[in-house]
Amino acid sequence: SVGPVLPAGFAGLKVLLLNISRAVSRDVLITFSPTEGPRLPNMTEKGKTGKIKLPKEIFHSLGSWTARVVVTVLNIQQLGMFEEVNQTGQVLDDTVVGITVGETSIFRLQEPMKLTFTHRQLPYGITPQCVFWDPSKGMAGGWSSSGCFTQPRNNRTICSCNHLTFFTLLLNPALDESTAQALMAVATVGCGVATAFSIFTIAFCIFLRCRFRSEETLRINLGLHMNLVGSLLLLNLAFLLNNGTSGGTQPKTCKVLGGLTHYCLLCCFTWMALEGCHLYLLFVKVLGIYIHHYLMKLCLVGWGFPALIVGVAGVIGSYGEYSIQTMDHQVIARLC
């Protein structure tokens, strides 16, 4: 059932070509390594090389009697390929394995293709993830785990995928529960300190507005600052409330908390934009600018426009409980 074998390649790229009969009676096994590339298995390679297991159903469903199988092993550092923008994980041995069968795309396999990557014992805090290259992700493509299941072992990781394309094993820095709790504690303390200083700033602005009642321009400037600081105060309070109650809240309450947090965040952005527009009027359009009920109109935009966006997001069901999980789906934090 296996036809002529043709190994080929050059620096950074090694290829294996096989002709497989449609009447193949068992799964097709291929081994590979970053240095020697793909080849047919032999008895002396136990546990030393990676393995590819192509289920026989792939070939039974083809229209032609023989299918050309192309297996490529690429060194992406030498070739300068498969570079994802803002990639956090590291590609194991800079190795990508490409698998194609015939002239058509193979996907939605009932029995998954299994790809085994061999490696040393991974250090603490590193989680392997089976991924494939998705050209439609982002501007220039990126790694995706859709359709792939990761099974970590001591010195190997088994990837079970329901399609054929270019695969690799990403080594991601894992966020454990203790680190997540420490980060949440730091964020809580920071929000508490920011809340205290925001209250002090608002009180100081109120004092200045009362002290200089005859200075209309100064009162408008202070009013703008108070609204901006007020939105920051509400955002910090919303985060503290969200962090303190999201663990055991009802779904409706969690949606309200999520909408409130989103609203306060949008208010911060809106008031920052209004501050910029106000500075433009002060320093560029210096003369001849008067707007009746200027501060009131800014308040309608600063507090009303975010409410419109949050209302639309709430109608389409964007709010609810979200969890932060490790790669093995262990929940380490919950937020609304």
From TrEMBL:
A Pfam entry, by short name: GPS
GO cellular component labels: plasma membrane
Protein's cellular compartments: Cell membrane
UniProt GO molecular function: G protein-coupled receptor activity
Keyword check for Zinc: no
InterPro entries from the UniProt entry: GAIN_B, GAIN_dom_sf, GPCR_2-like_7TM, GPCR_2_secretin-like, GPR1/GPR3/GPR5, GPS
Residue intervals of the G-protein coupled receptors family 2 profile domain: 187-336
Keywords: Cell membrane, Disulfide bond, G-protein coupled receptor, Glycoprotein, Membrane, Receptor, Signal, Transducer, Transmembrane, Transmembrane helix
Membrane topology: Multi-pass membrane protein
Tagged with keyword Membrane: yes
Domain GAIN-B: 30-177
Any GO BP: cell surface receptor signaling pathway
Transmembrane segments: 182-208, 220-240, 260-283, 295-319
Protein name in UniProt: AGRG3 protein
Gene: Adgrg3_1
